[in-house]
Amino acid sequence: MSLHLAEISLAVAPGAHAVVLMDQAGWHMTGKLDVPHNISIVALPAKCPELNPVENIWQFMRDNWLSNRVFTSYENIVDLCCEAWNKLVDQPWRIMTIGRRKWARRS
User: Fold this and answer.
1) What is the domain partition of the chain in residue ranges?
2) Is the pTM of this model over 0.70?
3) Name one GO molecular function term (predicted).
């Protein structure tokens, strides 16, 4: 997670500050986490997946491409998950629609 935050930090414009929303998974909130100076972490309340848009993305992928199938091997699982991810990445409008929250919009 520290390496991931370091990569995000590199993408933050000079003089800007990033806010990263995270659930309270142990690896997200550990005291050992090295948080760069230009990033703040905002922890989402525990057990509130409706506040975390990525949970809706995972659910969409399961519902549309990954559920109700029999996987033949570990490699088959990885291949099909990569295929589903690539389908999603090819549809940025869908990602925006799934992750959007009407109640979180500014008026």
Assistant:
1) 2-47, 51-104
2) no
3) nucleic acid binding
